[in-house]
Write a structure and sequence with these properties.
It is a single chain. With 481 residues, the chain is an alpha+beta fold. Helices cover 23% and strands 22% of the residues. The strands form four sheets. The protein has a seven-stranded mixed beta sheet. The longest helix is centred in the N-terminal third of the chain and has 13 residues. The radius of gyration is 24 Å and the shape is globular.
């Protein structure tokens, strides 16, 4: 169930300290990358780091449009199947090795070869062949024409073949920690300590984006209050996230400039129910310990009716959000289905549905039970670096308590949460979220059956009809200029 969509990314800058003449930019955040290996990383903090350290064929602008990065020029065959790219020359990796078209071809084929990568392999699904015609030319042959080729390439970071070729076989690609993070991007890693900090220095010779500052330091803070205080005291120059409850105090601080606007990548927060069918439980990684009552669509619909999204938005986000209707948020514009109707907040209806479905409170303790006596008491987890989930969990406990549902709340380290989530399905309910590409393809793919064993389909939802519709969703009109 999509809980809400946050439409404001809050960026805070200490105006007295932050200028482009400054040697070091200090950034505070509440999280930390789960991995420095682009193949296995899942957290947004990791991809923030990758964008600094690596180049891609295209980059994304603040308005969601794409801009050529490593690609100097390109052409497309009349049938839309063959894309030929000329890349910039004189590009070097951080260790001084030249970046060539062979590195690009290696990277794309590397991602494609590892279907167990949670995200990046999916962007190569339509790649029939990738080859380097020479040091400056990459040729990609598709299995069918794609209307969103730029979107397929902007997250496929270019890896140095001379390093990664040693880790391309079997589980080596998954196990490689990549602690040196050698890329060709505008910043190169100096030092890193998981859960504490990352220190980057500028790659002054970058062919396209030579940095205006010398260093960037990301520092992880233990709580949102400490994070905000670090900004106020000047310990950091900016923070990438903050509790909305801090907006008022920071707006009135003479040393702080608060900038609010549409995010580069639209985000949403959702309530993840474990609905994995035992027959679809992943053979190698699956535990599938979800509460059996969550498999009942009537119960899930009743919980939707018992959820006051507007109260959550008003209390948790101070009104800075809109109710979510699906995985595709309204900030994706034309891709959003405005005809969707939300479940009305109606506690009386929710109670009636649960009564009719046979969930009674037989022992009068305020908690309903299944027919076999198993109480409707669900584990509720969230990442402990979330700024909004603790209050959301508290409010959900109150709302769902009104319909006889009990929650057992517990925050987990993001890595621990990932391990119980996907694809082990060792949970009942999780509060987490997604950020989106400008194209909805990835978000829509989350619900496909094929993504269950990869862990991307974190609910375990499986519907053959949906799978077929998704497979038919991409179409290119070659007559359109």
């Amino acid at each position: 169930m999509t809980l809400l969509k946050c439409y404001c990314l809050i960026l805070i800058m200490l105006s007295s300290a932050f200028t482009f003449a400054q040697d070091t930019l200090r950034i505070g955040w509440a999280g930390s990358p789960d991995s420095l290996n682009p193949g296995v990383a899942v957290l947004v903090e990791a991809f923030t780091v990758f964008d600094l350290a690596y180049d891609s064929m295209f980059s994304i602008e603040l308005d969601g449009s794409f801009k050529p990065e490593l690609a100097k020029s390109w052409s497309v065959s009349e049938d839309g199947l063959v894309w030929t790219f000329k890349i910039h020359t004189g590009v070097n990796f951080h260790d001084g090795t030249p970046l060539r078209a062979q590195d690009v071809a290696f990277s794309y084929l590397f991602y494609q070869a590892h279907e167990d990568f949670p995200f990046l392999s999916g962007y190569t699904n339509y790649f029939e062949n990738v080859e380097a015609a020479d040091d400056e030319t990459v040729v990609i042959t598709l299995s069918e024409p794609l209307p969103n080729m730029e979107n397929q390439l902007y997250l496929l970071y270019i890896l140095p073949e001379h390093i990664w070729s040693a880790y391309s076989e079997d589980s080596a690609a998954l196990e490689f920690e990549n602690l040196d993070l050698i890329g060709s991007g505008p910043f190169e890693l100096v030092d890193y300590k998981q859960g504490e900090y990352l220190h980057f220095k500028s790659h002054k010779d970058h062919y396209l984006y030579p940095p205006h500052i010398d260093e960037v330091i990301f520092q992880t803070f233990s709580s949102q209050d400490v994070l905000v205080q670090a900004l106020k005291t000047g310990q950091v120059d900016m923070i990438t996230e903050m509790p909305n409850t801090a907006v008022i105090s920071l707006r009135n601080d003479p040393n702080v400039a608060l900038v609010s606007g549409a995010p580069l990548a639209p985000s949403l927060e959702d309530i993840i129910f474990n609905v994995i069918d035992p027959e679809n439980c992943p053979e190698d990684d699956g535990i599938c310990s979800g509460h059996p009552a969550l498999l009942d669509v009537t119960l899930r619909q009743a919980l939707a009716h018992a959820t006051d999204k507007q109260q959550l938005i008003d209390v948790v986000l101070l009104g800075l959000g809109t109710p979510g209707l699906g995985l595709v948020p309204d900030s994706l514009g034309d891709w959003f289905n405005s005809d969707l109707e939300d479940y009305a907040f109606d506690v009386e209806l929710a109670n009636h549905m649960l009564d009719e479905a046979g969930y009674k409170d037989s022992d009068k303790d305020g908690i309903r039970e299944m027919a076999d006596g198993k109480a409707l008491s669900f584990r509720l987890n969230w990442p402990n670096d979330s700024l909004t989930a603790p209050r959301t969990a508290e409010l959900l406990g109150q709302m769902w308590g009104d319909v006889g549902i009990s929650l057992m709340p517990q925050a987990l380290d993001p890595d621990a949460l990932t391990s119980v989530c996907c694809p082990s399905f060792d949970f009942d309910i999780i509060l987490w979220g997604w950020t989106s590409d400008p194209d909805p393809g990835f978000l829509l793919s989350i619900l496909t059956t094929d993504e269950i064993p990869t862990g991307t389909s974190e609910t375990g939802y499986s519907n053959p009809e949906y799978d077929a519709l998704f497979a038919e969703a991409v179409e290119l009109d070659l007559k359109t200029p």
